[in-house]
From TrEMBL:
Membrane topology: Multi-pass membrane protein
Coiled-coil features, chain-numbered ranges: none
Protein name stated in the entry: Transporter substrate-binding domain-containing protein
Organism whose genome encodes this protein: Roseateles amylovorans
Cell location: Membrane
The keyword Transport is assigned to this record: yes
Xref: PANTHER family: ABC TRANSPORTER GLUTAMINE-BINDING PROTEIN GLNH (PTHR30085:SF6), AMINO ACID ABC TRANSPORTER PERMEASE (PTHR30085)
Alphabetized SUPFAM superfamilies for the sequence: MetI-like, Periplasmic binding protein-like II
Keywords (A to Z) from UniProt: Membrane, Signal, Transmembrane, Transmembrane helix, Transport
């Protein structure tokens, strides 16, 4: 520390950007720390300023450095970005230390806390205790963007509902919107409603103070500081003062008070320092080429593009499955719309009132209720019956899309059939359908546009897949921009095919 202070430049303002982190902090006399404001008891924004274990730890560090402290509120999705952009000097923001993140910043060891991810849910939402993550396949689980274990859930087929902050996630658990939710036990367990229970616990995750790549000297000083805070019980006392569970911290205190960890000169990293969690995702064969393409786009056009779905095998699998399900869903929805349009056309013009009246009642119900409500109701029925598999969800979604759009198209077929009869023609259903071809095509295209709503009931189509990918890549702009492009192309393709079919039907009618 004395050597660093002696080497400080005289003009700090002009040279701050080029200094190592510790030198910059000492030179400017200010430590900027990124903290959470939505994660009690670790970090919580209050009218009197940030409170919790992490702001208190930041205060101890600033006091040891002899500098003023400035808090910068971050969240799970943007904390690493804030560090990389230089908006903060270090993070104390519930940041888990993983091998995947080791390439992004310096994670100080010893760690200051450890959590586990728990899946909590309403007592009736699934079996009392799940043995493994496979039990979540096809079920919707609420998570926050950027959580390191989201990929584990997505790999096992869980459908992820994303929330931007931990506070919003907890609120949705309390109001019953989330039948299942996954997050750190430190967040969920203290605030768990009586109607919820722990379904599954997995993935121990150490939390670390994080410094940018330009701060190796700061990281070494912080490492020595954390050793002392563990050994003398200061960190343990901070945790007790803020209502944080202390079993893990007591184990750390015992470790740093005993050989070989109590003597920095003979420190044994294997025995004294916990390793990061190994959550590295297997890269695809084209990952390197994708990264070079991203870099070229950034340098050539200044466009920040992140093609997360092409970099890891799990993301690519989710992406390709999403594309396949979307195309199959659209094909099924279009076919169901056409078939049900003919069925409604026949039923609405049937001679028997016992057939005609129920069809008109169904048509009225479809026309007066938003499709999203029908889809949500269908999802609730599936869940209550225990049929929440991707295949079952796909079949139900096809039926709902076909009913909603086919009933409206069927009204056009019925009107065309009635006009044929009024003009003295036999009123064949096929002839009526040809005359109502424009309306049928319009509602078939509408079924294509409405297909993303099927993600509400667990269909793993592209919207659901991209949501899952964004949950662990923390990248949403490019991901959902590509989603928009895909659906624009898909709808345009369906419309083009329908126009060709209409043209052929018209030529056939004119020829006759």
């Amino acid at each position: 520390m004395a050597a660093v202070r002696a080497a400080l430049p005289s003009d700090c303002t002009a040279t701050a950007a080029t200094l190592e982190t510790l030198s910059r902090v000492l030179c400017l006399g200010e430590l900027r720390v990124g903290i959470r404001g939505d994660y009690p008891p670790f970090g919580e924004a209050t009218p009197d300023g940030p409170r919790g274990l992490e702001p208190a730890l930041a205060g101890r560090i600033a006091e040891a450095l002899g500098v003023r402290l400035r808090f910068v509120e971050v969240n799970a999705a943007d904390r690493m970005v804030a560090l990389g952009d230089g908006r903060v000097d270090l993070l104390i923001a519930t940041t888990g230390h993983t091998l995947q993140r080791d390439s992004q910043a310096i994670f100080v060891r010893p760690h200051y806390y450890e959590s586990r991810t728990v899946v909590v849910g309403q007592r009736k939402s699934m079996p009392h205790q799940a043995r493994d993550l496979e039990a979540l396949s096809g079920l919707t689980v609420c998570v926050t963007v950027g959580n390191s274990t989201n990929a584990d859930l997505a790999v096992e087929g869980a459908r992820l509902m994303l929330f931007s902050s931990a506070r919003r996630l907890v609120d949705q658990v309390h109001n019953g919107t989330c039948a299942l939710a996954a997050h750190d036990d430190t967040l969920l367990l203290p605030q768990l409603p009586a109607s919820y229970e722990v379904k599954l616990s997995f993935a121990p995750l150490p939390w670390s103070v994080v410094v940018g790549r330009d701060g190796p000297v700061m990281a070494r000083w912080l490492s020595r500081t954390m050793q002392r805070l563990h050994a003398d019980g200061a960190l343990l006392r901070l945790a007790e003062a803020h209502g944080v569970a202390t079993p893990w911290l007591r184990q750390q205190q015992a470790r740093w008070r005993s050989p070989p960890c109590d003597t920095p000169q003979t420190l044994d990293p294997v025995r004294c320092l916990d390793p990061p969690r190994d959550n590295q995702l297997v890269p695809t064969r084209i990952a390197g080429s994708v990264e070079r393409l991203e870099q070229w786009l950034q340098e050539r056009f200044g466009v920040d593009v992140t093609l997360a779905m092409l970099k890891t095998q799990v993301a690519l699998r989710l992406f390709m499955e999403g594309v396949g399900y979307s195309i199959a869903l659209v094909a099924g929805a279009v076919l169901a719309t056409v078939v049900l349009a003919l069925g409604f056309g026949a039923g609405l013009t049937a001679r028997s009132r016992w057939l005609r009246w129920p069809m008109w009642a169904t048509l009225l119900m479809m026309q007066s209720t938003p499709m999203v409500m029908f889809m949500a109701a269908a999802g609730m029925v599936l869940a209550s019956l225990g049929w929440s598999t991707p295949g079952m969800a796909w079949g139900v979604a096809v039926i709902v899309l076909g009913l909603f759009n086919g009933s409206n198209a069927g009204q056009a077929v019925a009107e065309a059939r009635q006009r044929l009869r009024a003009d003295g023609h036999p009123g064949h259903l096929r002839t009526a359908a040809v005359r109502a071809r424009a309306q049928i095509a319009s509602f078939a295209a509408n079924a294509t546009r409405g297909s993303p709503v099927a993600s509400l009931i667990g269909v793993p189509e592209l919207l659901a897949a991209q949501t899952d990918i964004a949950s662990f890549s923390s990248e949403r702009v490019t991901t959902f921009a590509l989603l928009l492009i895909f659906y624009m192309a898909l709808v345009s393709g369906v419309v083009a095919v329908l126009q060709v079919v209409q043209g052929r039907l018209q030529r056939a009618e004119n020829g006759r």
